[in-house]
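Margin note from the TA: students keep mixing up input and output lines. Inputs are the sequences; the output is the structure of the whole complex. Example:
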Amino acid sequence: MTVKQLTILFIPLMLLNACGRKVEVREYVEVVQLPQRPPVSPPPMSSTPEDPMRAAPLTVEPILENLPPNHPTLNGGQPPMGEGRGANIMAGRESEVPPPPAVTDLEWDLPPKWTEKAGTGMRIAEFYPEPETPEALVTLIALSGRAGSLDGNVARWRGQIGLNPQGETTLQHLDGKLHFEFLSLVKESQELEKPQTIIAAIYAQPDRTLFLKFMGPTEIVAAHKIDFLQLAGSLTQTEETP
Amino acid sequence: MKKLMMFASIRLTVFCLFWLTVLTFWGTVYQVDHGIYQAQDRFFNSIVFFVGIFPFPGGMLTMFTLFLNLLFSFFVHYQAGWKMPGLMLIHIGLMMMLLGGFFTKITGIEATVSLFEGEGRNVAVSRTEWEISFSNELHSVQEYQAVDLSDLRKGRKFSFRDSELDFKVLEVQEHAKGLRTSGDEDEPVPANSAGFVALEKLNKLKTPEEHEPGVLLQVEGANGIEEILLTPRDQRPLGLELADGSVRFIMLRRKRYELPLFMELNEFSRTYYPGTDTPKDYRSLITVHLGEDLQREVIIKMNEPFRINGWTFFQQSFAVSGDSEMSVFAVTRNFGRLIPYWATGITSLGLAMHFLQMQWMQLARRRKKS
């Protein structure tokens, strides 16, 4: 085989190499199932709470059909609890009485070992990743109108952990049962004994914005970040609006 | 036809084998500074590579030429039939080996699937390749259209079905850094969710899985012409508005390979050698969903992969975060996995037959002499 013959062989192959391939469009379906853990019921209330005033069964409203005949509530002329005076009012104790639990159309799967408390008002729920470390707290809040502004809330959070409120915050779009934006704010400083971190999932909805915020010592937040994301991914809206 | 017979030349065989030796040596030296992936790409996966302005035949061209040489030799030198069956089998075995390598090269896939306990996916993610994905929505069950970044060159055009958008590649970089200022204020600012306006080319790394590519595209649609810049550091997929007001999402991400199954990690467990951090055994219990009503549980553990329809799932590594454990599987697709075994078997058989035939002929000659 001569050099000339080899050259004749190589030239078309080199041209072929230079021309390259056509851009091919592929199609596929991606299915991602987020970690789904069985929902864990919140632990029963302690029988000896720190605040005995809060242990009183203030909001129990009798179910009429469960009461025996001639029960004073039925025939004593007094309105049943929860009617007229409000379910949470007890004489002399108004200041101690917690407001009613927030009514919500939201559902979520509680990560294992976390504890949950019903919130009040705009605070829909509170979650404690480590019950013995109450300063590491996750809150779920619904805000509407100007209070639900993303920039305003993020600036406020930045201020809470000592960051410049006007600094740049990057948002990451994530997709759970609801779409949400995820952000992470970390105050890094060797001078701080317990550096603080905030991670949050923000759900923009037509009539409100939901903020799932986890604030606490950096090491605790980091240890529970995956659980937090699972909680954020599991948050969904029930069909029935209260 | 006569000219074609030049491919049967024994000189060509010697040249090809010699050049493969040179490529192997060159590639081995080259990988010290540039890493194994770059050495493979330059010397073995190329048709031609250049050193300065001088072209040299790459591994693909050399092996293709060697294949032709074997094929023509087979027909030219062994037309006499089965007089030398051993030599014929050797040629067939070697050709199978080369064809098997080529088949694996063009159809093979290497990727990973990472799953937390309770998580499930039907796609594997490439470690080194990237794609531009395009979708109507960003749901957990989502249909995507995608083009491979490796197919893109400056000036090439493409479009996605039902999008009415035409894309033209203005710049594509295998490894680049996003810049927030381009230095030229007259240039149009491309849309980008991370605030980048231009790309700065960076030298390739030894480890291509750490590359961060970038691509600058011109998009032409009903709303006019605009430029978009896509990088892995984008904060969110870029929304492109169509004439009817609907939005499509485009992003640059690691290439997805659709698996023939949906796999769900039920449980991950590991054990260590006593008193050490050296893993003795780690295993994943997965549920494999093959169809609507067809599913089974499979254990994948170290050195015991799970194979199905040409795909192999190896237990590669794991990560622990708090109470959650993530299992990482290396996924390969190689439909020609058994070809080298067959080829080696045939070649060995051919060598044995040829050896015995030669011995037999020598013995016959001695008998004849005596």
